[in-house]
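Mods, move this if it's the wrong board.
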Amino acid sequence: MPTTETPRNSPNSSRDEWDARNAWTKILITFNTKNPVRLGININSTAAEAWKTYKDSYETTSDMTRQNIEQELRNLTFSDEDDFQNHITIMQNKLSQARALGADITNKNFKTIFLNSLPSSWDPVVTSLYKNIPISETISQLQVWWLRIS
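Not the wrong board. Structure tokens:
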């Protein structure tokens, strides 16, 4: 007796239909992954298990990338010989990258990171900028100071 095919979105598919859909989904996951074995995807498991491994690996990679970008941001330093406007742009770009990856860097934290990136020769002006003013105003004041000394 022939079985009738259940609708694609039915939660009650037959065992044969489930096996076929699982195989098809697993094929899509593995063939669209550059190196599924290196990623830890067990091609003998179910599609759901393969997808979970894929997602877990992606989240781990994203966390590592976010941490690396945050560290790069914190390690940036400015030298008196550098272009100050370029330093501002680089710092803001790193901040945007870190935030896009989920970093929780507030404007207040960024201000501290930014001020810490400046050399000790800037201490006379930097110490006055730790007061409670927005980062945009802090950068504006630093730009004015930079123009006066350069």
